[in-house]
Amino acid sequence: DGGITQSPKYLFRKEGQNVTLSCEQNLNHDAMYWYRQDPGQGLRLIYYSQIVNDFQKGDIAEGYSVSREKKESFPLTVTSAQKNPTAFYLCASTRSGGAHEQYFGPGTRLTVT
Amino acid sequence: AQSVTQPDIHITVSEGASLELRCNYSYGATPYLFWYVQSPGQGLQLLLKYFSGDTLVQGIKGFEAEFKRSQSSFNLRKPSVHWSDAAEYFCVTYSGGYQKVTFGIGTKLQVIP
Q1: What is the 8-class DSSP label of residue A4?
Q2: How confident is the model over B50-77, as pLDDT tens digits?
């Protein structure tokens, strides 16, 4: 079955450490996205990528970095510069063109103490 | 700038009762409109979408939504709610371009016996 996988489901880190969240899709989608979800704030876009080796900052990119070396993979690194990294992170993908129906992964809950 | 308003943050309904979740959007033209559902700790799943044509759209799990241009609304409805419908519901608009996806803040639905 096609879909998006995110790993791990839960992640714990100490403050000051960088951490990388995995996102893989086998839907053959060109575009991929990272969102952050906090209670009462909906979803906020961190980064998106339309094609391999290209990505753009979203609304809240500070303290995050991404790479897109393969079509299937779009890992997100939460750096020590991110002031409030504890959140639920969602990865999504869409077909190129079309009307932007997004397919979501199951999410990773990151806790930094 | 486009915006999406979900005026009800929390709604409680009895099992078997009807449901209507409100969504209003602000955009010069008619955007593409979506409703997604999110179970606790999970990713988002598409319930239904509206692009054009018939203003009453049917989705999965017995949900439907009606687009009303005059009211800039896209309310989600279900005639009889089941306990498994307890989740958070997001209204989403897309108006072109990879950064033009806007999420509402979400409505959390509680279903009581």
Answers
A1: E
A2: 988 889 999 999 999 999 999 999 999 9
Q: Note whether A101 contacts B45, CB cutoff 8 Å.
A: no
Cβ(A49)–Cβ(A30) below 8 Å: no
List, in order, residues 6 or more apart from A97 with CB less than 8 Å away: none
Assess contact for B21 and B5: CB atoms under 8 A: no
Q: Which of A35, A1, A27, A44 is nearest to A108 (CA)?
A: A35
- Residue B88 — φ and ψ, nearest 5°? -110, 140
Contact with chain B for residue A28, Cβ under 8 A: no
Q: What is the mean pLDDT of each run of 10 residues along chain A (113 residues)?
A: 89 93 95 92 91 93 97 96 94 78 94 93
Preferred mutation among B10, B103, B107 to probe A, highest tally of A CBs within 10 A = B103
Contact B90 A43 (CB under 8 A): yes
Tokens of B85: 């419908």
